[in-house]
Amino acid sequence: MKRVYPVEEYCIACHLCEVACTVEHSKSKNIFYAFSEKPKVNSKIEVQMHGPISFSASCRMCEHAECVEACPVAAAWRDEETGLVIIDQERCIGCWMCIMACPQGSITPRVEEGTKLRVADKCDNCIGRDAGPACVQACPNDALVFEDRDDLSRKETGLRGSVHAFSEGEDMTMGD
Q1: 3-class DSSP state for residue 83?
Q2: What CA–CA distance (Å, rounded) separates 74 from 91?
Q3: Residue 3 belongs to what H/E stretch?
Q4: What's the predicted TM-score (pTM) here?
Q5: Element (H, E) at 145
Q6: Rounded CA gap, 74 and 38, in Å?
Q7: Is residue 162 predicted with pLDDT exceeding 70?
Q8: Class for domain 62-122, per CATH?
Q9: Hey, which residues does 109 pair with through a beta bridge?
């Protein structure tokens, strides 16, 4: 399954991926109106920075999706045809268990302004968009790639981007 992967060494923290995501998921699809629409449109990708390193983080569409397991009403589910982990916002009850369960921190809370309805929101890989995810297309430095890495191992290919494979006993804490 194709997923969005960051390439940390190319990211310049310009946040254009966030802008593209917000515009793509807005009703108007217009950069001048998207940020003032009601209900507010959340970016489903977030630029994270730690010192001089920055990268865009979005849903990893985990093979064993903790958010799906945590959802008490099956609003979070995996589409068997596409492999995407999807949140049905009509079914979501706003308990945000999926947010707490997500190891990547890729699910964001959203509260509808008029109704105060709470729902969970996450990346959908811009499903149905012919050009692929808007964040990947908008990145000026090619710091995001949309690739299928399921059948590839780290040793077989010169993949760019995060693979995050740890050996048993390896220290996984981030040193300052």
Answers
A1: coil
A2: 8
A3: strand 2-6
A4: 0.80
A5: strand 144-148
A6: 27
A7: no
A8: alpha beta
A9: 120
Hey, do 1-58+127-150 and 62-122 end up sharing a CATH topology, with the first three levels equal? yes
User: Could you tell me the residue ranges of all domains in the chain?
Assistant: 1-58+127-150, 62-122
Query: Which two tokens mark 156?
Result: 């077989």
Report the SS3 class of residue 56. Answer: strand
Burial code (b: 16+ CB inside 10 Å, e: under 16) for 119-131 equals: bbbbbbbbeeeee
110 pLDDT above the threshold of 70:
yes
Q: Specify the CATH number of the domain 1-58+127-150.
A: 3.30.70
CA 173 vs CA 62, 169, 176: distances in Å: 21, 12, 10
Q: Which helix (H) or strand (E) holds 109?
A: strand 108-111
User: Residue 61 has which token pair?
Assistant: 């569409």
Tokens 């959203």 — which residue? 110
